[in-house]
């Protein structure tokens, strides 16, 4: 069963390592207007009116490149196991941005992680939809989020949307939720990473857990500590 992987700490550790590598790849990407550096990957950022475009697509492409050097397999735009009614009158299959697989003893692919990529400050409704998928699909989730830059209010604004999105999906929380969140800031070359792990009837109320998880505590990258409120601070 896919959900059997949900408490595998090796998987969580590997997801975090992949996210770290992905952040560093992103920080070394140059735009089509810049000079290539020694660590620049083959991927470049397209420019619009001399301004580099940063989107979730670059993160997904670089992630697949990293996965190619691991023992994992992956698929993109993976059809979901469950049906969802985000619009219209009927529940339909949707897609996960990327899924990661390992091979079991029977040489069969076993989906272990669903990944959702986001960029900038998306609408709350978009966050809610993808959070619902990560909660209901019964495998470990990985949320990788890109920001071009940030100020004192950036994380506060986005984090409040996550708190609301999780609370809005609480009717689906009848088992452990395991999601790694990683927020990568391109221009400042810092990232924050933390594992959301909630088990009904063991942890405190879901809304309170979410508020504590996304609690603001000097999350501006200027701290000398590698951890703030449980967040791992990643730098180049």
From TrEMBL:
Domain of life: Bacteria
Protein name as annotated: Uncharacterized protein
Species: Anaerobacillus isosaccharinicus
Lineage: Bacteria, Bacillati, Bacillota, Bacilli, Bacillales
């Amino acid at each position: 069963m896919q959900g059997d992987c949900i408490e595998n700490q090796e998987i969580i550790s590997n997801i975090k390592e992949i996210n770290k590598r992905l952040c560093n790849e992103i920080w070394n990407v140059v735009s089509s207007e810049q000079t290539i550096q020694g660590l620049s990957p083959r991927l470049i950022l397209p420019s619009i009116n001399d301004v580099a475009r940063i989107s979730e697509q670059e993160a997904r492409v670089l992630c697949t490149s990293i996965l190619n050097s691991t023992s994992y397999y992956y698929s993109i735009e993976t059809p979901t196991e469950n049906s969802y009614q985000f619009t219209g009158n009927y529940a339909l299959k949707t897609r996960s941005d990327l899924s990661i697989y390992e091979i079991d003893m029977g040489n069969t692919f076993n989906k272990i992680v669903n990944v959702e990529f986001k960029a900038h400050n998306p609408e709350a409704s978009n966050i809610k939809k993808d959070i619902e998928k990560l909660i209901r699909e019964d495998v470990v989730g990985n949320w990788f989020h890109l920001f071009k830059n940030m100020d004192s209010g950036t994380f506060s604004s986005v984090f409040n949307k996550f708190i609301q999105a999780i609370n809005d999906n609480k009717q689906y929380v009848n088992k452990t939720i395991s999601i790694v969140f990683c927020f990568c800031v391109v221009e400042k070359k810092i990232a924050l990473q933390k594992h959301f792990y909630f088990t009904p009837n063991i942890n405190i109320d879901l809304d309170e857990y979410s508020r504590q998880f996304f609690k603001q505590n000097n999350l501006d990258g200027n701290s000398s500590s590698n951890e703030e409120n449980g967040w791992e601070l990643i730098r180049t």
